[in-house]
Amino acid sequence: MTTHVSPAPTTDNEDPIPWIATHCPYCALQCGMHLGAAGPGPEIRGNDHFPVNNGALCIKGWTAAETLAHPDRLKTPLARNRQGDLVPVSWENALGLVVEAIRDTQRRYGPDAVGILGGGSLTNEKAYLLGKFARVGLGTANIDYNGRFSSAAAASNRAFGIDRGLPFPVQDIAKADVILLAGSNLAETMPPIMQYFEAQLGNGGRLIVSDPRKTPTAETATLHLKNVPGTDAALANGLLHLLIRNRTIDVGYIEDRTEGFDDVKASVAAYWPEHVERVTGVPEAHLIEAADMLGSAGTVMVLTGRGIEQQSQGVNNTLAFINIALALGQVGKPNGGYGCLTGQGNGQGGREHGQKADQLPGYRNISDPTARRHMASVWGVAEDTIPGAGVSAYEMLDQAGTDDGVRMLMVIGTNPAVSAPNGLHVEERLKSLNFMAVSDFFVSETASMANVVLPTTQWAEEEGTMTNLEGRVILRQQGARVPDGVLSDTDIVCELARRLGKGRYFEYTDTEAIFSELRRASSGGIADYSGITYEKIRINAGIYWPCPSESHPGTPRLFGNAVVDGDSFLPPPGFFTVSGRARFHAIRHRSPAEVPDAEYPIYLTTGRVMAHYQSGTQTRRQTRLVEMEPVATLELHPILALRYHISDGERVQVATRRGCATFRAKLSTAIREDTIFAPFHWADTESANRLTNPALDRTSRMPEFKICAARIEGLPERTDHEA
Fold first, then answer.
1. Which of 487, 535, 612, 623 is the most exposed place for a label (fewest CB within 10 A)?
2. Residue 421, preceding peptide bond in cis (omega within 30° of 0)
3. What is the pLDDT of residue 716?
4. How many helices (H) and strands (E) does the chain have?
5. Torsion of CA 158, 164, 168, 170, to 10 degrees
6. Which three-class secondary structure state does DSSP give residue 183?
7. Taking a C-beta distance cutoff of 8 angstroms, is the pair 313, 590 a contact?
8. What is the DSSP letter of 247?
9. How close are the terminal C-alpha atoms of the chain, in Å?
């Protein structure tokens, strides 16, 4: 495949070496980097010319090449023998076993008995191909992905008729007068983005952070609102109450560009400051100060993260914060508005092109007859052969192996044994499957339970597009050789389709050919990529969707009634709703699905730490990252530690109604006294997701990762091996 070679600086007396312009394999910033074959292995340098990170990388980005030559790298297929062990087999045998399992499962239980679980790290081409393979190759409704674990998408669709993480470039952050950041610790999860927050503060701007912990991000804030976990909607409603009372809302904007405000105004009337203080634990004085900052600013950005989304009330929480941005007249205003800080590398693109159970490419609804007719024409199949909507990711895992669930599961690019909530239950369900095939480049915790494991290419060994948190479609270019014995996920899927007799629908010369079909499939949809090409991406350092024609430059900023070449591509007054107006939603705060009680008296919340990523399959294998964070820690307040006679660094066991996990105690005054925090990157007895609550948001089907009731217990007696 064609690669773009960029010049790179050289030192004296050294010959220039080729440097491939590509992107980091981790978070949704998709930082630009150069990959060079200098020294004993690939070398990484930041790409100074990529406008998102301007050459900056976090520690994970700098060390990303270490996984390419890791000794644990899987380079041959594995299959489980009669003794129950995973042993090397040929590709012919491995793929034969998968095809045989598909045919047998669907013959015995029906087409929907085979499911596909994808990941938010997969390229747009892979996400598209998996959706097509599920519907055309397998005829199953059951496909979803771990990026399902988001509520901002559902909230944005309800409010604006469109879901794009940031509807403006990250550079706009530096120009906002005031930023309200809810439920995100960017200083640890996306460090390169902090350059824009630092610039915003340096320009005289102010930053308000709401979070139960005084994270490194909150430490930089002008004002920290340290709320009780699960009270985010009450906090947002309380701020809007004060904005209305202070008459600092934008009445003209509300009348001209929105609908539903009267219901919201009536609903927030009950959220007076004294009441909100009792519910959220945020002092009334801090609420008033925050409202004054927001109401007096010329430009305001409201940004939300996974902290408020990964709850059973996640959609409502997000809508409550969107209400603030709308009431202030900021959505569509230069250097203002609302944005969601998408987490996974392709969390945005992964949900746009058919990898979700209820969607078809272009962000089309699978139940829409027009959308189904369009896709039938692109795929060359009869419309009535395209299945309807399947179940969400957690529901598919929860029902796996049962009469009502999938009996065979194909897992590509995710590790649900560690990343899914209620982890012990999920492990049981995975083990109950008739057959599981996993595509990965390491034997992850999920792969270790599989019947067949297929070795696949890593980020630097393949080409494909990703869509970052801004809606910028970028191109990852191949910069490393594919190891012998390894295939790409696209090769695997196309070969399986051929063996299943559906090969004519999956004939592609290269990855760019898949993208060309994706462009046609997305044409006319909300997420329209039809005007984006690989070459256009290379020339422009990415293209923002929607981009409906090759002459179109892309859409860096939404909701502003932009006009290109005399063609208005946003309906007046600039929103993608039926009326063209943004929608307010009256939200009532509801308690989390599980709150502390006498038996489980403490709030547990979970999240990331700087050194690791997602389930840790990659980062827990990297020396420098393991040295930074060798074990899972439990952050708790010294007063809470004193109550339980816990010393810093001591092993601690935490229990919830779903299971137990052990951590090293990390005492910190940054966290509330009623709350403990555990990172979710570790497995087995250190797995935080053995504790988390699978209660789902009724709209997004988001599990309640961020809140559950817990207790601290004494550790069981250690074995001689543990000692």
1. 623
2. no
3. 59
4. 24, 33
5. 130
6. coil
7. yes
8. T
9. 52
**By the 8 A CB rule, do 641 and 574 touch?**
no
Residue with tokens 């969390």: 347
The span from the CA of 73 to the CA of 613, in Å, is 18
The residue written with tokens 């792969």 in the block is 447
- Measured in whole angstroms, the distance separating CA 218 from the mean position of its chain's CA atoms is 21
CB atoms within 10 A of CB 514: 23
Using one digit for the tens of pLDDT, what is the confidence trace for 430-447? Answer: 999 999 999 999 999 999
Quick one: pLDDT at residue 702?
86
Residues pairing with 567 in the sheet? 564
Return the sign of the alpha-carbon dihedral for residues 676, 680, 682, 687: positive
Burial 61-97 (b: 16+ CB within 10 A, else e): bebbbbbbebeebbebbbbbeeeeebeebebeebbeb
Contact 453, 443 (CB under 8 A): yes
pLDDT value for 15: 44
The answer to whether the beta carbons of residues 312 and 160 sit under 8 Å apart is no
Segment 621-626 mean pLDDT: 91
Q: How far apart are CA 334 and CA 330, in angstroms?
A: 8
Which residue from 489, 507, 510 is spatially nearest to 379, judged by alpha carbons? 507
- Report the 10 Å Cβ neighbour count for 559: 22
Extract the tokens encoding 404: 């009502």
Task: Provide the H-helix boundaries in 328-448.
Answer: 347-350, 369-379, 393-398, 416-419, 423-431
Q: Which residues sit opposite 453 in a β-bridge? A: 78, 438
Q: How far, in Å, CA of 451 to CA of 421, rounded?
A: 23
Q: 180 Cβ partners below 8 Å, 6+ apart?
A: 208, 210, 239, 290, 294, 300, 301, 302, 303, 321, 324
Decide if pLDDT at 452 tops 50: yes
User: How far is Cα 329 from Cα 253, in angstroms, rounded to an integer?
Assistant: 5
- The sign of the CA dihedral 614, 620, 622, 624 is positive
Tell me the backbone φ, ψ of residue 141, rounded to 5 degrees. -85, -15
What lies within 8 Å, CB to CB, of 618 at 6+ separation is 25, 67, 442
Which helix (DSSP H) or strand (DSSP E) does residue 496 occupy? helix 489-499
* Six-digit token string for 109: 């239980």
Determine phi and psi for 146, rounding to 5 degrees.
-70, -15
Phi-psi sector, 204: left (phi>0), alpha (psi -120 to 50), beta:
left
Q: What are phi and psi of 108, to 5 degrees?
A: -85, -35
- Residue 352: pLDDT over 70: yes
Residue in the structure block whose two tokens are 């934008």: 250
Q: What is the distance, to the nearest Å, from the Cα of residue 174 to the centroid of all Cα atoms in its chain?
A: 24
Convert the pLDDT of each residue in 212-232 to its tens digit: 999 999 999 999 999 999 999
Mean local confidence (pLDDT), 243-250: 98
Helices marked H in 28-90: 59-62
Whether residue 420 has pLDDT greater than 60: yes
Helix (H) or strand (E) segment spanning residue 337: strand 337-340
Token digits of residue 401: 């192996």
Burial of residue 542 (CB within 10 Å: 0-12, 13-18, 19+) is buried
Burial of 119 (C-beta count, 10 Å sphere; 0-12/13-18/19+) = buried
- Kind of pairing between the strands at 143-145 and 408-412: unpaired
The pLDDT, as a whole number, for residue 40 is: 58
Quick check: helix, strand or coil at residue 277?
helix
Distance CA 299, CA 336 (A): 5
> Which token pair is 184?
């995100």
Residue 214 in contact with residue 670, Cβ under 8 Å?
A: yes
pLDDT tens per residue, range 127-157: 999 999 999 999 999 999 987 756 888 999 9
**What pLDDT does residue 719 have?**
41
Per-residue pLDDT tens over the stretch 157-191: 999 999 999 999 999 999 999 999 999 999 999 99
Nearest to 610 by CA among 581, 583, 580, 633: 633
pLDDT at 567: 42
Q: 228, 602 in Cβ contact below 8 A? A: no
